[in-house]
Amino acid sequence: MADDIKVFGMKAEAGRWIYVILGLIINICLGAVYSWSVFRKPLETFFSVGATESLLPFILFLAFFAILMPITGPFLDKFGPKLFTILGGIIVGIGWILGGKATSMSQLAIYYGVIGGIGVGIAYNCPIGVAGRWFPDKRGLAVGLTVLGFGLSPLITAPLARSIIDSAGPLAALFQLGIAFLIIIAILGLPLKFPPAGWKPAGWNPPAAAAGAKADFTAGQMLSTGSFYGVWLCYIIGTLAGLMAIGVAAPVGQELFKLDAAAAAMFVSIFAIFNGIGRPIFGALVDKINARNAALLSFIIIFIAAILLGKFSGSASSSLYGICFSLLWLCLGGWLAIGPAVTGVYFGTKYYGPNYGIVFTAYGIGAIIGNLLAGKLRDITGSYVSVFFPYVTVLAVVGFVIALLLMRPPRKA
Which of 82, 131, 177, 394 shows a CA-CA span of 20 to 30 A to 17? Predict the structure, then answer.
């Protein structure tokens, strides 16, 4: 059957890589939310608000992104990835465009945060699901490369946004980027489709399931396992630390390490590279050393970065700032590959859409807790130092222990 399938006029084994490229570009547009720290200082000045208020659109965006994932997941098989990608892309674009017309931070939170987040929640799982199904033999790598675009987005969108902000203001940047995202996502969503049922690459056979393992879990069966809660709790902690670092990256650079706005935006672009490469790196690690060991490594890295930031912030060392935030962004990228890959490995691909939607709620919880904590601590203490030490360091230790004890393949009752 594998020899009969053509993808973009090529044998499926070669043509399927085009789906990864399309998914990567779509995710660059969807992942522009990670450039939010570039908007924060200009918006704080424009609307005369504090750190917590300027984080609100970012928090709501990520929260609604996570909420919509489990809602739309069960319908992905029925309606297909093309429809949901195009629909989500249109909604994302509208959210950014309306955000560019906001007259208050509250309006911006609704337009950009709620509407934009809903759009990403609808579209995000589509290219991931396509890559996962076309690459049963290299799922971790393919998914990691597909979501690479989401993490890599600030490399392109942060300096672009900074340029528009400098010339026309933050609202103009939101408006112009929204138009671009709507058009790009809608066009690139047109070719997306799943492989025929039962398709597998030529010459590849799926590995035998471990003794007692259940190959495909329904959502209810997944929720009855300790493995799910191990993955879910670790996902919360891993994304909390990374999303916190993303939300405050530019302000921390300016306030603690005395960088100007342009230099801080440049560093955000550098961090995006690490966020991006974290996905294929950790996706490949899931394939090579298993999900639990990849998770343990991520928490060790988070712990080291948080300790260094907590102890040496204010040293005016841009190198320290660059290294520590690069590590935190790397691990966030890692968890956005570990999460979808381990969902397929532990619970199967038959019910992947609804299953990963449930797992992904951890991302929303991490976004809300992490960024509210960061904003409140900044407003209360006048500094971001306490965000990293002791809070993130302690959470990294807790995550390490949970991964060690609970992240393991589930067994059939």
Answer: 177
Taking only the tens place, the pLDDT of each residue in 94-114 is 999 999 999 999 999 999 999
Report if residue 204 sits inside a domain.
no
The total number of structural domains that make up the chain:
1
The answer to whether position 79 is within a domain reads yes
Sign for the CA dihedral angle at 323, 385, 256, 315 comes to negative
Q: Note the pLDDT tens digit of each residue in 192-236.
A: 999 988 888 888 887 665 444 457 899 899 999 999 999 999 999
Tell me if 412 is assigned to some domain.
no
Closest CA to 297 of 148, 403, 395: 403
pTM of structure: 0.78
Residue 222 forms part of a structural domain: yes
